[in-house]
Amino acid sequence: MSEASTAPSKIVTACIVVIGNEILSGRTKDANIAYLATELGKLGVRVMECRVIPDIEERIVATINEVRAKFDYVFTTGGIGPTHDDITADSIARAFGVGISEHSEAVARMSRHYGDPALFTPARRRMARIPHGATLIDNPISVAPGFQMENVFTFAGIPMIVESMFRSMRHRLVGGEPVLSRTVRTNLPEGVIAEPLGALQKRFEDLDIGSYPGFRAGKVSVSLVLRGTNDDRLVAAANELIDTIHRMNGEAEELVQ
Fold it and tell me: I need a labelling partner for 217 at 20 to 30 A (CA). Which of 123, 143, 164, 234 fits?
């Protein structure tokens, strides 16, 4: 086997930062983390952290400066709308030590979208303010763009818009090998399966193996999820896990992904 084929692939990492008091208060339920984590995983970008922080400039600046140095990519959602509490763009500009002002292309796009100048209100013009040096991210739904500053991508908070923005910029990302997964469901409780599951993880250190308990039809059900970039290794680990469960007189079902 050649040296190139045995060399580990580069792990490309990401952090998702959700910005908004409405998320922390429970008034709004976040749907963006699940979407972004799933889509990034397909591109070989592993989400290693997710943070939910308030609309406080100091917190946003400190968080962005921490995570942009720590991860390959950072994705923020929320806080780039037309109201007074939409301070994400200003905070990102401060984090990078640059100014912020109306972006000519953003203004042009929004002017065309609204048509009547009376509809392009001062509040809406706030959404055309972009940190200096940033690259626009297209917004096919409501036009007001997001933006990219180096490895930080800033999206709106509305899930439909987040999804459209992500689709418009995903070609900019360079990932590693796509993250694959296999799931084995069993009726054995975690306390019974824990020891052999830990031993399996030691034998397959290149995989992430997680246990997620729940109930089905009022009975214990545990989903054992195996994730990695090598499908042969995933198949081997899943088969070994199923055999182990059967030897323990448990039921095991591999779910179709």
Answer: 234
